[in-house]
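Q: Got a minute? One more chain.
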Amino acid sequence: MNKYRQLERQQWQEVMHLVHICEAKYGSISETPEKDPTFIKIKKLCGSNKATGLTIDKLEKIVEAIEAGYTRTYIARRFHVTGSTVKKVRIAYGLKPKPVWKYILFKDGKPIYFIKSKRRDLTAIFKRNFYNKKVTESFLLNNGYKLKVCNTIWQNIPIGAYYVTPDHKKCIQKIDDKYRE
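A: Always. Here it is, folded:
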């Protein structure tokens, strides 16, 4: 989390530098005209204050939860903030939301694939269309797979398992903690 504190510190150092430029030009920041380009930069930097009213510790915990893959509503309830505050934090730090996978496909008791939609994602995995529930279940049973319903976030997918991308077109193996689409 130090990288986010460092980014915050760099932003405020830039603000202070711009304030000194305005003070050198006009004598005081209060005397600086609204249309001055330096003053406009200061307003933009201060206006993008990562999420108004949050302490740095709470902000760091929200960022960690977003990186772990928790949903916006879960984070909002857990940290007693609004969903829009969570969205502002995500946008301010340039984070992408990670999907929640609804199903786990097991083979030999090990979780192999994490999927969002049975029909669409199983088609991407096995390169075959499944027209109804019975065909899907018999195919999985005959090939030694077991499908379990379980909401799973990014943090809980084990290294080495596969997950289907949000566009339901390909499977990617999780090799480290960086999420790839």
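A: The helical segments are 2-26, 37-47, 56-68, 72-79, 83-92, 118-126, 133-142.
Q: Perfect, thanks.
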